[in-house]
Amino acid sequence: MFGGEAHCGVAPIRLPRDASWTLAQRMAAEHDAFGFYFSAHPVDAQKHLLAAHRVKSFAELAAIPVPADGSRSTANIAGLVEEARWRTSARGRRYLMATLSDSSGQYVATAFDEEPCAALEAAVRSGGCGLMSVELDRRPGDEVPRVTVKRFQPLDALARRTRLELNVRVPDADTVIRLTRELTGAHGGTGAIRFIVPLASGGEAVILLGRDYLLDAELAARIERVTGEGTVELSVQEPPKLALVG
Prior knowledge:
This protein is an alpha+beta fold. It has 2 domains: 42-156, CATH 2.40.50.140; 163-236, no CATH class. 26% of the residues lie in helices and 34% in strands. The protein has 7 helices and 9 strands. It has helices at 23-34, 47-52, 58-62, 114-126, 155-161, 173-182, 217-227; strands at residues 73-88, 94-102, 105-111, 129-137, 146-154, 164-169, 187-198, 204-213, 232-236. It has a 5-stranded mixed beta barrel with strand order 1-2-3-5-4. Helix 6 links the parallel strand 6 and strand 7 (187-198). It starts with 22 loop residues before the first helix and ends in a 10-residue tail after the last strand.
């Protein structure tokens, strides 16, 4: 590699041409190799859910100015629970202190109520991410807000309860056939898939493939490898609008 003498008897490293890592495998390997997530953070795998719940990153929360009256505020935030330890306050009250992270970096949060404490401990054991309703207390002089977790919902469980939709811009009819085969084993959920196909006469046709698919970021990434970057949009379905009948 560095211009030295060739070593005889050492077999060359050969990678299979069809090697393909899932998004989760790639992120795990990056963290093992570099000590941090390089191409994406585990929280980003559910960014479609986070957008629906108006989640802010910790860096965005830290940039919010301190209220002049010193009042507390609430927000939705998401994070990977990396560590959680019990502590005892000066008044003798036990609380959980957790180290979390999102794509903007690490942050620390505390929890006092039984339900979020149990959920945070479970997330540490499973290596899971969660959507959190938090209370922010940022006093003058604090560089970052103090975060208290009031509710913790595992993102995997939230994804299973949420109706999702996948819109795919397909370049041609041949790709439609290829994707239909790719999606053969993806049934069993409540997600809708739509293909948006250009017409030879101009305009576009929207094809509803079905409403019974198991949708996640992994499937979206797999489809995007076929159709090209920027052609796939995974989002939360809008609830049906009710009309008043006179």
